[in-house]
Amino acid sequence: MKTYLPLLVAPALAAMAPAARGADPVPLRAGPLTLSFDTEHAFLRYLRAGPHEVLRGINAPVRDHNWATVAPVVSNLVVDARDDSFRVTFDVRCTQGDLDFLWKGTLTGNAAGVVEFSFDGEALSTFKRNRIGFCVLHGPSAAGQPWIIETADGARSPGSFPRSISPHQPAKNLRAITHDLAPGLQARVDFEGEVFEMEDQRNWTDASFKTYCTPLEIPYPVEIAKGTKISQKIKVSLAGDLPAARRPEADTPVVLTLSDQRSALPRLGLQVSGEVKDLTDSQINQLRALHLDHLRVDLALSRDGFADSLRRAAGQARALGVSLHVGLNLGKTPAFNNLLDVVRESQPPVSRWLVTGGDPAHFQTARARLASVVGDALLGVTQTTNFVDLNRARPEDAAIQVVGFAINPQIHAFDIPSMVETLEIQADAVATAREFAGARPLAIGPVTLRPQFVDGEDPPGGPPAGPFPTQVDERQGTPFTAAWTLGSVKYLAAAGTDSVTCFETVGWNGVIDADADTTKGRPAGFPSQPGQRFPVYHLLAHLGEFAGGTVRQIDSSDPLRAVAIVLEKPGLRCALVANLTGQRLTPSLRGLDTPVGVRRLTGETATVSLPLSPELTPYGVLRLDLPPE
Fold first, then answer.
1. Is 460 inside a domain boundary?
2. Interatomic CA distance for residues 186 and 179, integer angstroms
3. Is 575 helix (H, G, I), strand (E, B) or coil?
4. Residues 211, 314: one domain?
5. For residue range 317-345, what is the model confidence (pLDDT) as tens digits?
6. Which residues, 6+ apart, have CB-to-CB distance to 271 below 8 Å?
């Protein structure tokens, strides 16, 4: 028996940079079920029956009237973990503005594989909320699997989890879901205390089908009076041929195996800086070394200043020797005459005009007004938020030549494990887009850590609560961003993406930080030195060597811990391997030639044992130079 003494996660710790904090998860077992409890976020994760994923997780977020998720502060944690059962109790306090809510959690698991998660909360103030309570996450492995849905009236109906990403709720009014894990093995989830419905969170590249409480058809926000009590419970159980429990995934070696799958390396580009107007000669030289395909600039045609933005972007694109992707947000009163004047005057090297927002009339208007200047550039549509907006407003106009959407991993969760989970789902989003886009090029971007609201607006959650602007993530300058970006390129390439626009050129959302005269006015706490090249810059430099080349996939036995690819072009081959965890990792590589050189991301040499088992630092990326074929 293991007993953990009460633990307090202090408010000061909750405010620290996510990459710098995080208690180790507590491993738990309930008979054939293995799982872990994330004590920092009060999040039950990775429920598995033998090799089969039962659930990706269960948590209980508190969402305020702006849909902002209030950070949980966990205290009084007590864990009684036995060989095949457990009991966990803890308190969670959520405070933000006038919102003050306390809930007590109880987790139990028994030898029969039954897990229960109870939520008993009380409002300590009067406030407005959009949602309070459980979210149950079925993982992406459930896609296409048969289910039986039980609704609140007791009715049972067969069906299946959507295989392609569903634009709308696949199921409503839920009391229980039973689905197949494997032939002869089923998992059942019961919901108590509220009305639940499901959405396909792959629309936001989350790795789950989320069953949440309080249907969206019920008006919100709702005032919660001080003293209001809320109680809910989730029960997970198994039926059929129960497998033996497996050791935790974190204790299993990661095996990376070369596959035969090849695809083109997408054309890579960056956004123009939102922090720095003009690039210095030094910055231009550093960016030229990345061998980019394009820059992207987004213009709000109903706002003043877009003409100057286009002129600056055109000058930077010419200095870098790349083309320009131009996003067009028409707004209510688009100044097309001003746009045409600037295009004729500055002759920007545009290769893509991308109309944002999803209104078919906006595309038709842009097509008509740009006809005299579009030249050889492609004219298409994109969404600057998430795939969900494209999925719910699928482009039907045959005149659309290119289709795009943005990606970020932080709409519903902000911790690193959840962000890593989104990587595989990027390929699912591209595959679903391909179903209605056909053979048209897919221009994905911007791909960023945080949502980029390019029209100067704050996201639905409202303005930032911390010291940094809404669109800035303090992890931008850390190794994690490079490792995550390698995973993104891996999956987007495998899915057949034509082009990818990543972060900005310069600044705290960029690949190089701004110079001292720009950064001196920033709030303290951003982990960078003025002018520093971020780790993601070095990753893009390695990828840039292979512009126009091929990506050969390397399969991972645990893609939540390590990913890898082989890059190929005539006379040049290398493997890039990324550690997606905050611990050292030594994966085994199979099917690769003996490397002729080994380099860490920033260029220093590293050692590797044979057979190939390179040691990776936390969030480290390693390059293995391979002999040409």
1. no
2. 6
3. strand
4. no
5. 999 999 999 999 999 999 999 999 999 99
6. 295, 296, 297, 298, 445, 446, 452, 501, 502, 503, 504, 505, 509
